[in-house]
Write a structure and sequence with these properties.
heterodimer, A: alpha/beta, Collagenase (Catalytic Domain), four-stranded mixed sheet, two-stranded antiparallel ribbon, 10 strands, B: alpha+beta, Lipocalin, 3 domains, nine-stranded antiparallel sheet, eight-stranded antiparallel beta barrel, 8 helices, 29 strands
């Protein structure tokens, strides 16, 4: 009986070895389709992007619909290709050029511009009735929506300002995602709220926020200060994108008690102290004179309108 | 012995467990090789059609955004598309006349997603009904939703790519719209470039030149009433069947160069209508000549319906009375080809100061007498929905000719009604003793056509 057992054991070992001998895999001769990105016949748009964005700024521009790249599952449409070059030219001339002039070269933007610029033709519509005009993703990607609405005509200057506001807003995020603003900024204001979209511009201003959206959190507050100072901000009362100073004036509450006119400048002072932090941050962290940059941005904007 | 059984069992188990066959290839091809071959075959199929393709898309009545959905009307759309090897696609659309008049070029990509996909990856005509901006898509699904159409599709046929025939099925990845690509003939391609779709759109709109509400199509000995809804892309056929019953069928239409086609055929006894073609307006006698199949027909204005829906008026009145609310009209009366002929939308309130028109309302059994109330509801900056002008009516009568006759109840006080003004004219028309033919146009919508000559009508919707 014992002999049999041994024979069986040997058999088991032999059979196990034999049955587990693996067949050879077919070698992988083709990479998975789409690995390394999509390819298509190059158009004038692709050449412009290569020459004007990728070579000088090391930025890849995604203007074609890439499933899953933008928020899923949302009804967002891709840009009209005819809008891509005009939009990029506006970015280069009105948003990037002032930084280059201020810092003396393209080095600063080349280093800090997020390496991917993603475009969508429409906005992204949120269930709460708000819309996304842009997004910044962890210092690596910038999303620009509503490319189909872009126009440089004087009559459409609000749309143009909105676009520039979005770009400066998102670039502001990239900057603070690289080097955070002083922690004290977060304590200048209280009253941040997720329901910012229920607050009118005038109430936001009088509460010490430059725009309603600035109330959504300190990060947004910080970059709304940057973008409003550089490109103007939305004013729901007029429906326009007004200059920073115009908005600032509305932050003062004027009331009359008996014969005396009383000004309450609490909101104004709050915004002004935020302004000081922004200016100091740009000088200290990035060695950029913010007021000089602002002048250059405004000049570039006005000159670019048709 | 027991021990031996265990050994045998062990051997069998191990042996069976390890007999793996590695199915990583089919006919010697890895999955990636097969996917690449399929993508190349789809691409070749699309670009290989000498005269391009006609893409027909039908929605499911659901639109998605941000992971939530809305229900709404279904539509069917038709495009002409020509694909080339440089990832470019040129298309026409039947969405609106500008898109039927000139082709637009954009890009496309055949790409592997969870299934091989056809993506229209830059904006073109096909993106317009998808656009979340209500100012662009005019979608009734609401802010942020398109019409439930798609621009990113999966190839959904169960045959291999290289075995596909002249029909390719697609399913939208976001909204699950169904699309079919059908290889176009030279005549179809030439038809698009010759402006046939545009001409058909113009022909359909020429129905508006007929001033009567009832547009009667006579074809092959049968009569139909047609109602065209350009916004929702539907056409409604009403006819009287062999047993004398009113039949109504609403179908989605789409326009290819070959005619105004219906997603569902109209079947009336032995007659089947799948498309209308060759719409030509004859100004002399205000008729439209059409071709259906091999037959020629005429669309003529008629003062009365083929057969009046005798209970429509009481259904309308009872619905309002039972639900304790009013029927609303946003445009007032259409008279002799003119929308809002009395200018009720331009009416402003002088008595209350600064109100603008919101809608005209008819509230069945508003008073307990019982009596109805016709009112013009105005929108004020400080309070919404104030009935500035109103007038009383007794419940309508339903005489045997199938009409509904409103009963004047006289002034019920409140602000004096300016004589000859929009509300005064509206009131006089409504209480015209000739009465109205009532047509139910939807679950909660009705049209009423003045029985005198069929050229005056009003549309009511349920605002709740």
């Amino acid at each position: 009986m014992k002999t049999y057992s041994n024979i069986f054991l040997i058999l088991i070992l032999l059979m196990t070895a034999a049955s587990c001998k693996k067949e050879k895999f077919t070698p992988l001769t083709t990479p998975p389709p789409g690995l390394g990105g999509d390819t298509w016949a190059q158009t004038a748009t692709d050449i412009f992007i290569h020459d004007s964005m990728t070579v000088p700024y090391n930025v890849a521009v995604y203007y074609k619909w890439l499933p899953g790249q933008l928020d899923f599952p949302s009804e967002i449409t891709p840009p009209d290709e005819a809008q891509v070059i005009p939009m990029l030219k506006a970015l280069l001339n009105v948003a990037y050029a002032p930084y280059n002039q201020q810092t003396g070269s393209t080095t600063f933007l080349r280093k800090y511009l997020p390496k991917a610029l993603e475009m969508a033709g429409s906005a992204e519509y949120l269930p709460n009735g708000a819309i996304f005009l842009g997004q910044a993703e962890g210092g690596t990607a910038m999303l620009l929506y509503q490319v189909n609405n872009y126009s440089r005509k004087k009559a459409d200057s609000n749309t143009f300002k909105q676009t520039m506001h979005t770009m400066h807003h998102e670039f502001g995020h990239i900057l603070h995602q690289n080097v955070l603003y002083p922690a004290s900024f977060k304590t200048i204001s209280t009253g941040y709220t997720a329901q910012w979209y229920n607050v009118s511009t005038i109430d936001a201003l009088q509460g010490g926020f430059i725009t309603s959206y600035a109330m959504s959190g300190p990060d947004e507050d910080f970059v709304e200060m940057i973008s409003t100072m550089l490109a103007g901000g939305p004013n729901d009362a007029t429906g326009n994108y007004d200059e920073y100073e115009t908005l600032l004036k509305e932050s003062i509450i004027t009331s009359q008690i008996g014969p005396t006119v009383v000004h309450d400048s609490t909101g104004y002072n709050t915004i002004k102290s935020k302004e000081a932090v922004v200016v100091d941050y740009f000088q200290r962290v990035w060695n950029i004179d913010f007021y000089s940059l602002r002048t250059k941005c405004r000049t570039a904007f006005v000159n670019y309108l048709q | 012995m027991k021990k031996i059984s265990i050994y045998i069992l062990a051997v069998m188990t191990i042996g069976a467990g390890c007999t793996k066959s590695y199915n990583d290839t089919i006919n010697g091809q890895t999955p990636d090789q097969r996917v690449s071959a399929a993508l190349a075959a789809y691409q070749k199929k699309l670009t290989g059609a000498p005269y391009g393709w006609i893409l027909m898309e039908s929605t499911t009545g659901v639109a998605y955004n941000q992971g939530t959905s809305q229900n709404g009307p279904k539509i069917v759309l038709a495009y002409y598309m020509s694909f080339n090897d440089s990832n470019r696609v040129t298309m026409f659309s039947d969405w609106d006349p500008t898109m039927a008049a000139a082709p637009k070029s954009s890009s496309f990509l055949v790409k592997e997603l969870t299934r091989p996909a056809l993506i229209f990856d830059t904006y073109s005509y096909i993106h317009v009904p998808c656009d979340p901006d209500p100012n662009i898509s005019h979608s009734p699904y609401g802010f942020g939703y398109g019409w439930g159409t798609d621009f990113e599709y999966s190839f959904s046929d169960s045959v291999p790519a290289d075995k596909l025939g002249d029909t390719i099925h697609l399913t939208g990845n976001l909204n699950s719209a169904n699309a079919v690509l059908i290889k176009a003939t030279q005549a179809q391609r030439d038809g698009y470039y010759a402006g046939n779709v545009l001409a058909l759109m113009g022909g359909a709109l020429s129905l508006n030149n007929i001033l009567e509400y009832f547009k009667r199509l006579s074809i092959g000995g049968n009569n139909y009433e047609l109602r065209l809804d350009v916004t929702n892309r539907t056409v409604t056929f009403t006819w009287v069947d062999g047993s004398g019953k009113i039949q109504t069928q609403t179908v989605n239409y789409f326009i290819t160069g070959s005619g105004i086609q219906f997603d569902t055929p109209i079947v009336n006894g032995s007659q089947t209508i799948t498309a209308i073609n060759g719409l030509t307006y004859n100004p002399g006698n205000s008729t439209v000549t059409v071709t259906i199949g091999s037959q020629t027909g005429t669309i003529t204005g008629a003062p009365t319906p083929l057969k009046a829906d005798a209970t429509a008026g009481s259904r309308w009145w009872n619905y309002g009375a039972n639900n304790g609310y009013f029927w609303a009209s946003g445009y007032g009366f259409h008279v002799n080809g003119v929308d809002d002929a009395y200018g009720i939308r331009n009416q402003t309130d002088t008595a209350q100061g600064g109100g603008t028109f919101y809608y005209l309302a008819y509230w069945p059994a508003y008073y307990s007498n019982p009596a109805d109330r016709l009112s013009s509801i105005m929108l004020f900056t400080n309070h919404l929905g104030f009935a500035t002008y109103h007038w009383a009516g007794f419940p309508p009568l339903y005489p045997s000719n199938g009409t509904t006759v409103f009963q004047n109840g006289g002034s019920d006080g409140n602000a004096p009604i300016p004589a000859g003004g929009a509300f005064d004219k509206t009131r006089q028309t409504l209480f015209n003793p000739a009465g109205y033919y009532v047509v139910q146009t939807g679950e909660k919508s009705y049209d009423m056509v003045l029985a005198t000559d069929g050229r005056t009508w009003i549309s009511w919707f349920w605002p709740q």
